[in-house]
Design goal:
This protein is an all-alpha fold. The protein is built from nine helices and no strands. It has helices at about 20-35, 50-85, 90-100, 105-125, 125-145, 150-160, 175-180, 180-200, 205-225. α4 (about 105-125) packs antiparallel against α8 (about 180-200). The protein is elongated, with a radius of gyration of 27 Å. It starts with 20 loop residues before the first helix and ends with a helix. The relative contact order is 0.11.
């Protein structure tokens, strides 16, 4: 009776690379601190003079304040993005006026917001919303089109066609303007601008996990397709 031959042990070159636990710990700590899942720990310091104690207390509170501010900014961006994706431009504008007024100094962004608001008001279809759309046209969209960017006035004249063509008319020249995907494009643009202005970027671990999940989903879809 022949005995089974043992399988050869994997060579060192075939073994997976060792995990850098320090880097992994740093990623986890960056994530939980950024999302305020733990309180920042205070490291012990030697006794010092009252003036140096005040300086130390101020400097030690700075990371916590910065983390809290970043967290609040990311919540603001998420709320504004969801409002735009739902077609509630008024809610997004109210959030920006209250918490990020500097973003509204960007005339290009402001023009796009007013243009989307005009489309959403017309989309609702009621007489009151149509009157609100015409008021938006006169008081916000038209003045903004004059100094937003060179092509803005041509876009302003083009968007007036939504008053003539129905949103379900697939042969109309404003099919793209009626499209729901415009909401998501504008929401993405607003998110990018706010992240840059508020320095509210997602924690590294969060972005890494999203990237790995996207790769996993793509590989599953590829396998299913095969």
């Amino acid at each position: 009776m022949d005995l089974p031959t043992p399988s050869p042990s994997p060579s060192p070159s075939d073994s997976p690379p060792p995990v850098n636990w320090d880097s992994l710990d740093a990623l986890v700590l960056d994530f939980v601190r950024s999302d305020r899942l733990i309180a920042p720990s205070a490291s012990p310091s030697p006794p010092s003079s009252p003036s140096s104690s005040t300086t130390t207390a101020t400097s030690s509170s700075s990371p916590s304040t910065s983390t809290s501010s970043s967290y609040c900014s990311r919540i603001l961006i998420r709320r504004a993005r969801r409002a735009l994706e739902a077609g509630d431009v008024d809610a997004a504008l109210a959030l920006l006026r209250a918490h990020a007024p500097a973003a509204l100094l960007d005339h290009r962004l402001l023009f796009h917001l007013h243009k989307q608001r005009f489309v959403e008001l017309v989309r609702r279809g009621t007489e009151a919303d149509r009157e609100a759309a015409l008021d938006c046209l006169r008081t916000a969209l038209a003045p903004c089109a004059l100094d937003a960017y060179p092509e803005a006035y041509e876009e302003f004249k083009h968007i007036l066609l939504v008053l003539i063509y129905d949103k379900d008319d697939q042969s109309s020249p404003v099919t793209n303007e009626w499209s729901i995907k415009r909401r998501f494009e504008l929401a993405g643009l607003l998110s990018s601008i706010l992240r840059a202005q508020l320095q509210a970027y997602d924690p590294i671990l969060s972005m890494t996990l999203r990237y790995l999940i996207s790769i996993l989903l793509a590989s599953r879809n590829f396998i299913t397709y095969i």
